[in-house]
Amino acid sequence: MLVLGLDRPLYLLYTIVVILHKSIMTVTTNDMGQQNLFAKEPRMVVENYNNRGLDSPQQYIEKYNGRWAMMGIISGFLSYAVTGKLFFGIF
Description:
This protein is mainly α and about 90 residues long.
């Protein structure tokens, strides 16, 4: 069965686009009867990490970012103490 006079590959592509459109987009109508297409918002997942004694992903990333920054500062101090120049002769 072909709709709109499309051949088989085009009909399959049309069907896939329609299915994806219906699953990804939603139509909203305002009070004046105008319709707008908006992407569906993802469901929010709220996980309470702190009550379980865990760090949230953002806290985890910030903690390791700070640790690597401290490693850079310590390596700068050590290279200055050993060679008299910061960062092993670069500065």
